[in-house]
Amino acid sequence: MGNQGRILAIGPTDNTSDQRTPRQRLRLIPEEARSSFVPVVPARYATTPHEWDMTRTAPDRPRADGVPIEVTGRVRTASGRPVAGALLEVWSANHYGRYRHIEDHSGLQLDENHLGLGRVLTDDEGCYRFWAISPGAYLARPDIGRWRPKHIHMSLSGGSSRLITQMYFPGEPNNATDPMAILMGDAFERNIGRPREVGTADVVQAFDFDIVVGGRNATFFE
């Protein structure tokens, strides 16, 4: 009952989460069928140089418009074990709130120097690092005046699993009304990047964003 009340409190939304929700109970595959399955072979991921730098489309190209930021963090399990060798795929809107995607019909300004796509691998300690342009907020639902706060999407792949989360930014005025934030309740705080000192990095702002896979303190995945 409590979950239903929380969902209804979100108000009008795009219904995509509802469309992805199973309508029937999951069916367990019989043991005799499972024994015939081919064992899962964990994927071995690889990236190319400079994919971690999303502030440029290539090393010899100008930087995109906006504020360059660095995001660092550590991926670990609920027990604290580092998740090494996982592939972190990152995508975000540009400084003006526009995605370079055929389905983005917002009409907001594109930036020829911004693709908004990057990939990195976690090291032996589960740590990662990438540079990006601080994304703009955008009006996701003009019909109901709903804005999406600035955020960065992250997809984590390891073994046979793929999980997706988003990093939000502190102090954003649209955080409180974001549908995902409302669903997460108090757990939303775990999805906000923590500002830190820039250090020697060639960026203007820096954030830490640790990802916990599984358990009660898991970072929200969809």
Automatic annotation (TrEMBL):
InterPro entries for this protein:
Intradiol_dOase_C, Intradiol_dOase_core, Intradiol_RC_Dioxygenase
Q: Where is this region: Disordered?
A: 1-23
Domain of life where this protein originates: Bacteria
Under the heading Pfam families, the entry gives: Dioxygenase_C
Q: Which UniProt keywords apply?
A: Dioxygenase, Oxidoreductase
What residue stretches are annotated with the Intradiol ring-cleavage dioxygenases domain? 71-99
Q: Name one GO molecular function term.
A: ferric iron binding
Q: Which family does it belong to?
A: Belongs to the intradiol ring-cleavage dioxygenase family.
Cross-referenced PANTHER family, in alphabetical order? DIOXYGENASE, PUTATIVE (AFU_ORTHOLOGUE AFUA_2G02910)-RELATED, INTRADIOL RING-CLEAVAGE DIOXYGENASES DOMAIN-CONTAINING PROTEIN
Query: Under what name is this protein listed?
Result: Protocatechuate 3,4-dioxygenase beta subunit
